[in-house]
Design a protein that fits this description.
Layout lengths: L7 H7 L4 H12 L15 E10 L2 E10 L2 E11 L9 H13 L8 E5 L11 H9 L3 E5 L6 E3 L2 E4 L2 E7 L8 E7 L3 H19 L2
């Protein structure tokens, strides 16, 4: 079934979820974001990536940490799903598991890549932003789809403000949409994403 055909309002009612209340919470939390470089990312060494998968009624949140491109730590956390899938509200479904797996780390990474949106979100507060605010670490959101924003060349604007960048990973491939979650700028988010891409390509060629 196409996502547009799903009655998410009905799903929210069945789960006793007040979407308007959550929208207001997102709008409020978005005001506390700092879309600027919190640290000198040129000196950053420990980078992490996190992704969530779903098996029946359970979520598995997996996190890996690299230090100078060497794998130094990997953790996962499994839990029961307690919130329905509703576009724009992924964090309320996935964030508890993400925080739990992050808390298992021996040492905090300098920044984290998350599959999902940062400020490129209808209320400027996607899962990457929510996660960053919860763990107090810079987070970059990477998405396969653009849900909102005006595209101008390789930049995406939201309310006439630069909010994300478009990166072509390889010729012929679908682009990815990069947006800061928190504690990092749009340009640095894109730069770090491109650097990661180059490192992956170089490692594959050796």
């Amino acid at each position: 079934m196409d996502e547009k055909e799903v009655d998410f309002e009905d799903i929210a009612k069945r789960y006793n979820v007040d979407l308007r209340k959550l929208e207001l919470e997102q709008l409020k939390l978005a005001k506390s974001l700092e879309i600027k470089d919190k640290i000198n990312f040129k000196l950053a060494e420990r980078v992490a990536g996190i992704e969530n998968i779903f098996v029946r009624n359970r979520i598995i949140s997996a996190l890996i940490v690299l230090d100078n491109e060497e794998l130094v730590e990997q953790e996962y956390f499994e839990d029961k799903i307690r919130f329905p899938y509703i576009p724009g509200f992924r964090a309320y479904r996935e964030l508890p598991a993400m925080i739990s797996v992050f808390n298992k780390l021996d040492e905090k990474p300098d920044f984290i890549f998350v599959k999902g949106d940062g400020i490129l979100h209808p209320r400027g507060f996607g899962i990457a932003s929510h996660f960053s605010l919860a763990i107090n670490v810079p987070v970059i959101g990477i998405s396969d789809n653009l849900v909102i924003g005006e595209v101008k060349k390789d930049e995406v604007f939201l309310n006439n403000k630069l909010s994300g960048k478009i990166i072509q990973t390889k010729e012929g491939a679908k682009p990815i949409y990069v947006s800061p979650g928190n504690f990092i700028s749009v340009n640095t988010s894109a730069l770090l994403c491109r650097n990661l891409q180059k490192n992956i390509i170089n490692s594959q060629n050796h």
